[in-house]
Amino acid sequence: MSKQDLLDLIDKAGKGSIEAAEAIAEGYFKGSFDGKKNLEKAKKWAFYAAKHGSDRAAEILARLG
Predict the structure, then answer these.
(1) How far apart (Å, rounded) are the C-alpha atoms in residues 23 and 49?
(2) Fewer beta carbons under 10 A from the terminal one: N or C of the chain?
(3) pTM
(4) Is the dihedral of CA 8, 58, 48, 37 positive or negative?
(5) Is 25:45 a contact under the CB 8 Å cutoff?
């Protein structure tokens, strides 16, 4: 995933897209954005999405511990 893809997702998440926040959390969790995992950012985005009802984000949070 490119840096532009990440910026587009952040823009969508900022406009209320929980699906975009989930994708950001998963991308940081898997290291999809720059080849490196960023578990701190994954946790931040997963918490936001889970707080708004995302089961997928809740699963990421559970994996992060």
Answers:
(1) 10
(2) C
(3) 0.93
(4) negative
(5) yes
